[in-house]
């Protein structure tokens, strides 16, 4: 029931993913009547036994942690409990981000050895590859050990999902030199340098889109600012083209040609391709989508959840975190 276009996009996208991958056993959690209406309007056949009624909805304006207590019959709370109780392997939602993180952390629980769960964002690069940034908003204040855990889990995720055997890790700072940064970056640099991870040193903000490293770690305060700035890029570009086109017929023709060219060239910037972001470090697969998620974005979120399950990422995270804890 979460997101700007719920429940239609959530239902249509999830069902499409299940139809595309026969290995997905799909449950739809939300207001049963509303879900059935979407299914009927689109002439979709779906097992009613797999519709789990949730009468309450956590709105975007609700306080995340208090909503878990005041709205126990919401789709977010029930979805997280399904994973906790081993009735589901993964939970996908485009609902209230804070509530999703709170429900996943408090209900599903953290993995042993994980101090702070993290969410990352996938950025396209000039090298036609991807750079994943951790953290982009799960925790605004981070200790060096937290940043190390982000790098550790991020490396496993990139290796398993993108097939990069030794993902490179960069530490976001105000300069490439080891002597630049603050107390947190100095201490984190030492941890990463002494680890088995493929750490390449400090990187700057420009290195994210340059593709200097596969993974960049930073605290969630800085990471969320980077993410929101990046999300505004396409909207600003469209507005600029529109303003240019309104200045005359020739400008309009030039803008049209440019728009067609850019549409193909910048397709990799479309968040729908990636769907949502996994919350790493919780005891189960939890994928959080954008509030404006389309059916395509939901579909890709569900398919990513299936891929994470098939590659047994939760166990791999836990084993690596345990090894790190024992080495300290």
Structure description:
The chain is of the alpha/beta class and 328 residues long. It has a domain at 1-114 and 281-328: Isopropylmalate Dehydrogenase (3-Layer(aba) Sandwich). It has helices at residues 8-20, 32-41, 64-70, 75-84, 97-108, 144-162, 183-193, 206-210, 220-245, 249-265, 295-310, 313-327; strands at residues 28-30, 51-53, 90-93, 118-124, 130-134, 168-172, 198-203, 215-217, 276-280, 285-289. The strands form two sheets. An eight-stranded mixed beta sheet has the order 3-10-9-4-5-8-6-7, sandwiched between helices. Helix 3 (64-70) crosses helix 5 and helix 6 crosses helix 7 (183-193).
How many whole angstroms does the radius of gyration measure? 21 Å
**Sheet bearing the most strands, described?**
8 strands, mixed
Low-pLDDT windows of residues: none
Query: Which descriptor suits the 3D outline?
Result: globular
CATH architecture of the domain at 1-114 and 281-328: 3-Layer(aba) Sandwich
Q: Order of strands across the biggest sheet?
A: 3-10-9-4-5-8-6-7
What structural category arises from helix and sheet content?
A: alpha/beta
What's the oligomerization state?
single chain
